[in-house]
Design a protein that fits this description.
InterPro entries: Beta-lactam-related (IPR001466), Beta-lactam/transpept-like (IPR012338), NamZ (IPR008302), NamZ_C (IPR048503), NamZ_N (IPR048502). This is Exo-beta-N-acetylmuramidase NamZ domain-containing protein. It holds the Pfam family NamZ_C. The protein has 776 residues and is α+β, with helices and mostly antiparallel strands. The chain has 3 domains: 385 residues, DD-peptidase/beta-lactamase superfamily (Beta-lactamase); 203 residues, Rossmann fold (3-Layer(aba) Sandwich), CATH 3.40.50.12170; 114 residues, Aspartate Aminotransferase, domain 1 (Alpha-Beta Complex). 31% of the residues lie in helices and 16% in strands. The protein has a 7-stranded antiparallel β-sheet, sandwiched between helices. It has a 7-stranded mixed β-sheet with strand order 17-18-16-15-19-20-23. Strands 4-8-5 form a 3-stranded antiparallel β-sheet. β17 and β18 form a beta hairpin. α2 crosses α6, α16 crosses α17 and α23 runs antiparallel to α24. The chain is globular and about 85 Å long.
Length: 776
Amino acid sequence: MHAHADASAFDGPARKVLSQIVASEVADGRIPGAVIVAGTAEGQSWQLVQGNRMLRPHIEPMTSNTVFDLASLTKVVATTTAIMQLVERGKLNLAEPVARYWPAFGANGKAQITVQQLLSHTSGLPAEPPDLAVPATGAKRDALLRRIANLEPVAMADERTLYSDVNFVVLGELVTRVTGLQLDAYCRKFIFAPLGMKDTAFLPDATRSARSAPTTANSRGLRQGRVHDPLASALRGVAGNAGLFSTASDLARFAQMLLHDGLASSDGTASAASHPVRVLTSESIVRMAVPQAVVTSPPWRGLGWELYAPLAPNRYRLPPVGAIGHTGFTGTGMWIDFVTRRFLIVLTNRVHEGEQGDAMPLRAQTLALLSSGGPPVSSQQIARTLPPVRIALEQAARLPSARGPVRTGIDVLAAQGFDMLSGMHVGLVTNRSGFDAAGRRTVDVLLHAPHVELIRLFSPEHGLNIDADEAVGDSIDPSSGLQVHSLYGQANRFAPGALDGLDALVFDMQDAGVRFFTYETTLGYALEATAAAHIPLVVLDRPNPLGADRFGGPSLDAGHESFTGYFSLPLQHGMTVGELAALFNDARHIGADVRVVPMEGYLRSMRFADTGLGWIPISPNLRTLSALDLYPDIALLEGANVSVGRGTPHPFEWIGAPWIDGKALAARLNDAHADAHFETVDFVPAESTFHGRLCHGVQISRTQPDRVPGKLGLTIVATLHAMYPQVFDLAATRDAIGSTEIQAAIERSRAPDDLQTLIARDADAFRPLRQRFLRY
């Protein structure tokens, strides 16, 4: 699993940003302080210690050797490691029923639950014992374990992933039953001592308790050096689900061991070059990093660990494999990336002031900061690093099938026996968004169509696989063996001679329904190229995902056409790609032979979710239908000095910048009644505008399903200009807004009603032209 470790993300600027992140979270009362360590397999790169570990009854500053209650990190650092060691030594078999090792556990329908199902949280056991909502009735440890052994499942094994503390309490008990050692004694002897983890233990002694970060108080006083988790507390502080205490430096040793394929030096230091001690085999680590079941949406889980995409700038666009991680309720987190060979440890006691504390923003922003350094990672790199994940990557890449009333152009063409293309040599403009009702690429459908010879492929922006966010070169499609000619590389048009030898060019891609989405310009260029080559353009129609009944927003000024605006359309045109082809051809007097294969079962009022068609991301940052819904409005900010959420989990749903006051902006926008609700959010984009910098801004959620196209986006632009006239780059929004008159109105701070009047006028002007080309 070896790959090159890039430490560039750990240099001076990143430290400054990280300090800003922690300071902001402390100031907002989410955490009292934090210790954060990030490093590579070869050694620790940097550590940040900031804030306080204790605020009451007196203040104690955070220190690098602060001991933290790891909460659920216990599951992976202690319990999972112990179980995998015992599997390696033949003491346990993952495929065997748990009842083989703990006979009483087989009661009440649990006789066939396996060790592996416990590790992967697919056992069907409840999250916690139902009668332990409030612990501490003084139940004896043995009595509590008997109650756990008698629990009934709440789901069938392997039916679904159900994260469960009970699973790991049982696993901790298995360690004791097969070794004769209590879990704490076993881990001390076989994990912590070999790794030199001197401050890692269940039930820390008085010295370590004195420098631990306290959590909340109970009837016995402040829990400092005493476990916070109620189930582990009821089990006297030693349990498979929680109870472990440790420091950042100890956990760094553990992370480096995993990155060294399970080896550590005999003194527990990061380098395993001399006198190596094997803690785990490479095979065990791979099993922890490989999905046990690939579900339709994350999270995916390995054995013990949750799976994550590598810590790379494009991590939000990758399948969640290549790295492992886990978090803890008290505010802890740990991630190990086998592709970039880096790790991150975030430790805080967010529950110290009460359980309203929140470590999630800190963890998310720190992960994004670390990810923003270094080059993007590809699925191929992940597969080379962890070959067994190839199956999961292939499953994640499968196209969905249709489950609704609409048949798109490719399905109608197939139902007609491909008569329109019979006897022809054809080229195809497409990407992954072109597929049929069975989830087969249009490439493959045409490749096997009778009496049709597909000989050439063309791909738009983002490439054939919709995974590139930069210029794309020509390539070979590995499945068909056909050459793919890029229409978003050195040139965006069809090269001279590109259509030679073709009898027809087929166009099949899912459009966004927005004026500046470049697939529409590629459609226009296809019309021009086929007209020049005197061959027909066959357009396989697809829905307008925003609805083909709604149009409006600022229109592009005539004479300002570009690759992000092929024709003077309003922001949302309310047309299908087949209808657009006819409009472009007529209005621009192209003279192409346009042949549209219309959809069946489609109504103009349908949104994409109504069609029953399978959805896939139609660009790297239009990954969800909620993002697409906001895209026409929020993309009006593109080009300006504002992040629109690219390089985050929520592109086009978050906006921000280092210079924005998120609370003030949210208040102004909520007062503006812009058909949406705004809440403050801080984030660090891993790529694109302000990548690697802390941004303050707002998260956006729609409140009106039937809204005026462009109203939300123009309201945001106008509000930013009014609040920050000397900072916000209004001029950079010119190309996206398209209308010089509307932008000038914003610059003059015209009233919102005046902007709406201008927008309505543009829509009225477009209405009769649009009406001529509607098919549905």
